[in-house]
Design a protein that fits this description.
- A hairpin with a 6-residue loop joins β1 (14-18) and β2 (25-28).
- The chain is built from 3 helices and 4 strands, in the order αββαββα.
- The chain starts with a helix and ends in an 8-residue tail after the last helix.
- Helix content is 41%, strand content 16%.
- The strands form 2 sheets. It has a two-stranded antiparallel sheet. The protein has a two-stranded antiparallel sheet with strand order 3-4.
- InterPro entries: Znf_C2H2_sf, Znf_C2H2_type.
- Residues 19-38 form the C2H2-type domain.
Length: 79
């Protein structure tokens, strides 16, 4: 077995680890690490809401602008 496969084996070991912030369980250490880096770390993620009554939410300006152009084209004026 080469080094790459050994690394993959260790990185993706099956466990029943859970996130200490939100309690979600994961089957691999790597999945838990990715989840904690992206989502949990005890931080609240800034959420941008559509100013119209459709209820669309995102955390990226680009996605919100694209949503306005696609869903509210007739009423959309760039802020």
């Amino acid at each position: 077995m080469n080094t790459y496969h050994k690394l993959q084996e260790n990185t993706f070991q099956r466990t029943d680890d859970f996130c200490e912030y939100c309690g979600k369980t994961f089957k691999s250490n790597r999945s838990l690490e990715i989840h904690q880096k992206r989502n949990c770390k005890g931080l609240t993620i800034r959420t941008l809401e559509c100013k119209y009554a459709c209820g669309y939410n995102t955390n990226r300006n680009y996605n919100l602008r694209r949503h306005y152009m696609q869903a509210h084209k007739e009423a959309h004026i760039l802020p």
